[in-house]
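Follow-up to my earlier ticket, as requested here are the two runs.
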Amino acid sequence: MNAISLAGIIFLALFAGLIAYFARFKPGSSPSSLRDIPAFSRIRRGIGLAVEAGQQLHLALGHGGIADFKGGSGLVGLSLLERIARAASNSDRPPVATSGEASLAFLSQDTFKSVYRLMYSESQYDPEAGQLTGLTPFSYAAGAILVASDPQVSTNLFSGHFGSEIGLILDAAEQNDSLTSGGSDDLQAQAILYAAAQEPLVGEELYAAGAYLQVNPYHLASVRAQDIMRWVLAGGILVGAVLKAFGLI
């Protein structure tokens, strides 16, 4: 085993240890210790207002499969869906999730069912809350537009793999005068979100959603561990550069 492999193992072990420490010994930590991202404040407010007003929330999960690199942002969306479903479990209008890929649709339905089971409200579970609106990008968008343009939908969130078709969904949501926020792993979709969404999530902000919305203690623990490891990595690079400059390595 060479020095680089050993350093990598130590780095991963330290990272995993920090996550376990923060999740185990500081599970009640508040996301207020993280840097402020206005989009998450508006999302939390939008969820609360929708529940109070008896309106509906729509989460678009995109059309990326979960078995390849396109699935990461969709899995983040499922975490958001769990948080939204918990908050709106007693609402007159439960949230709805749309997706353009079969596995995402099944997982969204399972997420709803699990949340209602935990809340002892299984009778309120509606399989149609997790909708498969189309199997191609634009057929998916056509179905999602019908949901986003519903006058009873006050908040439209986006977390998944999209293409240029996201512009059509955003346009329908804007005409409905609803809150639009979200992010994507696709650069084209991210550019459209940045230009058209009221509160876009840029880059890694999307992947920190679980921590900021307090989905699970491990989400916040992982973000706090990442912040520490960034400083550790930066310090290691700086020390290595100094040692290299003096010919010590």
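Run two:
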Amino acid sequence: MLSTKKLKYLKSLHQRKFRQKYANFIAEGAKTASEILSDKNVEIEGIFALKEWLTENAANIKLPGEKVFEISESELKKISLLRTPNKVLLVLKQKKQGTPAALSSGISLYLDEIRDPGNMGTILRNADWFGVKWVYCSPQCVEVYNPKAVQASMGAFLRVKTQIETLDNIKKAAPGLPIYGAALDGKSIYEIEIPKAALVVIGNESFGISKETAKKLTHLIKIPRHADGRAESLNAAVATGIVLAAFRRND
């Protein structure tokens, strides 16, 4: 049985201020848990699971006993953010922030004020699918460690490196790096020459790329709308997938 103190702590991780305070976050579900247990780079602070799951996964759990908790279904419902909790919840340590990585090759993403956690998670999933190693987030973005973002990423948060960073700092770390972003007068993504290295900016769900960020773009691109299309815009995560597919078309 979970103590009142432990229960309060776990429920506090539903809120951003406490995730930041403790530098921990929640990941849920049997599939995600299986991926986490097989990843040596993830620091697990605690496992909270039903007896059935603990028995099935005993051979893969390498944590000391004081970090593994057998809980009841009613307790899992209290600490879970899912409508239908799935056997196990893990508390993980957030990765420490560093300086921008070398961007001399490959495609990286810069998310400019993405606010929806579902979009954040799906963008990470897109990045994982297309082999993007780095996703940089502006300070105004929703957390990568928001539980809904973690869930929507389908495990991509384990493989795609993320960092909160300003575009100015990235430019300082990688002078001359081409920076692509969407604009109405941009060139079709199917007509551009694919660069060896580039940073692709994805704008906010409602107002797109901010004016301040737009000033720093070196290449303007667009996803051409079909002649019969009538939609005013695309969802940010959908647009990310289309752009990455275009940038990877020669791979």
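The only thing I checked on run two: Residues 121 and 149 are 4 Å apart (CA to CA). Let me know what else you need.
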